[in-house]
Amino acid sequence: MPANNQEIAAIPAEAHERLKHMRGDGKTRPLFTSDLSVNEFLLIKEAGFEPAGMVVGSSIYHIGFQQANWSKNEEMKVLSQAMYHARELAMQRMEEEARELGADGVVGVRLKVKHMSWNSDLAEFVAIGTAVYAKDRSKADFFKQKNGLPFTSDLSGQDFWTLLKAGYKPVSLVMGNCVYHIAHNGFRQWMRTVNQNTEMTNFTQGLYEARELAMERMQAEAERDGATGIVGVDLHEGSYGWETHVIEFFVIGTAIEPISDEHHIETPHTVLSLND
Question: What is the extent of the structural domain holding 192?
Answer without folding.
Answer: 13-258
